[in-house]
Each structure stands twice: as C-alpha cells, then as structure tokens.
C-alpha cells in the first residue's frame, strides 16, 4: 500500500482528510466477530478495509455488518491493506502471515502464532526479512489494568516464586459448552496452547525467560507446567479449557522480597485489541520492535512445544 506510516508522529492521521492505514481482517469465527471486527471498526487511527475467511458466506456476512469489502482471496486483501489482522487457527495463521509479510503488510497476530516452533519462527523471520512490524495480541499484555500491573511488577526484583492458573470452561464436563467449543484446534490442542500463551506472556517479562519447563497431565485437558526462569524464580502454571464450570477462573500470584502481588481483574478485551493495533502502528512508524512481537510469539511457541513433547499421548 502507498500509505506511509512514518507520515504521522502519533500513529493517527494528521488531519481529518489524511489517509489512514488500511487494516484487513482474516477470520470470521466468534473471536473475530466479538473482538477483532468491532475493535477495528471503532479504531480512529486506522480504516477497517475488508474481511477474508475460509467460509465465504461468513466472511460476506461479517463484511456486510461493518460495510467493508469481502475478499475471496487473502493475497488480494494483502495487496490492498497496510495491516493484516489475524483471527485464525494458529497453523492456518502462520503460513498466511508469512505471505502477508512478503506482501509488505504489518502483522497483528493472534496467539499462539503457531503450534510448532518451526512455523512460528518462520513468521518471525519473515517479519524481519521484509521489515514489517508485528504484534501478538496477548490479552493480559494490552488490557487494563493488567498491562500496567505487569509493567509495575517487571520493575521489581527479588522474585521467589509465581503461581498462575487459567481454567476455562470451554468444554465443561458439567454444562453447556461455550461459543468457542466449535473450534477444532482448541479441542485438539487444549488449554496448553490456547491459554498457555497468556500465562507465559505475563510470567516471562516479570521473572525472565524460561530456562527449563516440565509438564504433567491432569484430568480432562489440564496441563501443569513447572518453570524455572532466568531470574532463578520458580513458577507454575495450571492450564485447561475443560474445567468444571464452578472451578473456572483466572489468577496469578507473585511472591518475592517486596511482598505478594496478585493479578487484577480485567474486562476491556475490545479496548485491549485497539491498544494492540496502536502498538503495531507505533512499531511500524518508529521502526522499534514491540516487545510483544512475532519473535516473542515464537519464543512462547518454543516453550509450549517443549512442554507438549513431555506429555504422554
């Protein structure tokens, strides 16, 4: 696209008639319809340009809802847009993200970037090769007050241990499944891959990179990770999409020399997605990589793949 992301000092148009970066959405599922599309439509610093999906009828319906173009081919979307926003299963997302980067599109990725280290690294390498910016939408790193809380804890030292749990009732044994239960990749890969990136995305910036990981299975799809971080701190993460409804919930507790700190609640997921797009546009404008970029996403995939390899089929 001809829009120059360096033309604005703020990442937003310089005047009412200034062009805005065009964003194309790939994906039409519940996550795309509930979060991505409304956030893109509401974003004042960009223009929601169109939708592509693997189900043409769903893409047409979503595009009609927002008055944007429906694309029959993802490469046509890449050619028309400055930013490719992904709401696709990870192993569909990864090869398309490589193509988008080659077309010059900045990448607003979903987590996990992929479910193999090789595919995730290919995305990060493509972004670097083609000099496009990338951001992975990790909800806790963009929602408030959690994003600010992570930054505050990352500035502390003397951490001893951390305990995280993300127990989703997407496939509860005792009730109706959620709107995301029709996702084949979530059913196949479980909580390790769907919510594991969220837990790691908070633990790593606070405690340091994961130097070792061990994994064990529990009931349903539950996986427990034992982590050793670069700071020397020990961490655990308990992850599931098949928790009983009464047991579902999210929490993270840090303990160290300065005390005990717990992750605050958050609710502004569409707002968080808008901030992720802001971060991407800033990275594109400045040339300074965002810490939540495709390389970070690839690192999360590497850790999760190491954990998965330890689990019995």
- In the CATH scheme, what's the topology name of the largest domain? Rossmann fold
Beta-strand share of residues: 15-25%
Instruction: Tell me about the largest β-sheet.
Output: 6 strands, parallel
Cross-sheet strand order for the largest sheet: 3-2-1-4-5-6
Cα separation of the termini? 46 Å
The first-level CATH class of the largest domain is given as Alpha Beta
Judged by helices, strands and strand pairing, the structural class is: alpha/beta
The DSSP helix count reads 11
Helix content: 40-55%
Q: Are there runs of 5+ residues with pLDDT below 50, and where?
A: 6-14
Please give the domain count.
Answer: 2
CATH architecture of the largest domain: 3-Layer(aba) Sandwich
Task: Look at the structure and give the mean pLDDT.
Answer: 93
Could you characterize what this model shows?
By secondary structure, this protein is an alpha/beta fold. It has 2 domains: 5-140 and 270-291, NAD(P)-binding Rossmann-like Domain (Rossmann fold, 3-Layer(aba) Sandwich); 144-265, Dihydrodipicolinate Reductase, domain 2, CATH 3.30.360. It has 11 helices and 12 strands.
Topology at a glance:
Elements (H helix, E strand, L loop, with lengths): L21 E5 L3 H13 L4 E6 L3 H11 L2 E3 L2 H7 L2 E4 L3 H13 L3 E5 L6 H13 L4 E4 L1 H4 L3 H9 L4 E9 L16 H11 L1 H12 L2 E8 L5 E7 L4 E7 L8 E8 L2 E4 L6 H18 L7 H16 L4
Parallel strand pairs: 1-2, 1-4, 2-3, 4-5, 5-6, 7-10
Antiparallel strand pairs: 7-11, 8-9, 9-10, 11-12
Helix pairs in contact: 1-10, 4-5, 5-11, 7-9, 9-11
């Amino acid at each position: 696209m001809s829009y120059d992301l360096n033309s604005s000092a703020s990442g937003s148009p310089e005047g009412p008639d200034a062009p805005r970066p065009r964003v194309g959405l790939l994906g039409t599922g519940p996550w795309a319809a509930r979060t991505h599309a409304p956030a893109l439509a509401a974003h004042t610093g960009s223009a929601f340009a169109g939708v592509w999906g693997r189900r043409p009828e769903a893409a047409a319906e979503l595009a009609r809802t927002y008055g944007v173009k429906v694309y029959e081919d993802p490469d046509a979307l890449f050619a028309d847009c400055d930013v490719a926003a992904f709401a696709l299963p990870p192993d569909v997302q990864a090869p398309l993200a490589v193509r988008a980067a080659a077309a010059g599109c900045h990448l607003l990725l979903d987590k996990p970037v992929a479910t193999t280290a090789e595919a995730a690294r290919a995305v990060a390498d493509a972004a670097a090769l083609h000099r496009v910016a990338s951001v992975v939408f990790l909800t806790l790193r963009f929602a408030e007050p959690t994003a600010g809380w992570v930054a505050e804890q990352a500035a502390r030292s003397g951490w001893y241990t951390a305990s995280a749990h993300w127990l989703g009732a997407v496939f509860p044994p005792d009730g109706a499944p959620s709107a995301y239960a029709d996702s084949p990749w979530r059913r196949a890969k479980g909580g390790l891959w769907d919510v594991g990136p969220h837990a790691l995305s908070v633990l790593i910036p606070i405690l340091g990179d994961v130097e070792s990981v061990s994994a064990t299975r529990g009931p349903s799809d539950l996986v427990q990770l034992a982590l050793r971080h670069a700071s020397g701190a020990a961490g655990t993460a308990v992850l599931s999409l098949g928790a009983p409804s009464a047991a579902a919930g999210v929490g993270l507790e840090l303990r160290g020399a300065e005390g005990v700190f717990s992750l605050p609640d958050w609710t502004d997921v569409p707002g968080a997605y808008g901030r992720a797009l802001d971060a991407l546009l800033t990275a594109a404008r400045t040339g300074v990589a965002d810490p939540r970029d495709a390389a970070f996403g690839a690192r999360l995939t590497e850790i999760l793949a190491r954990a998965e390899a330890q689990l019995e089929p």
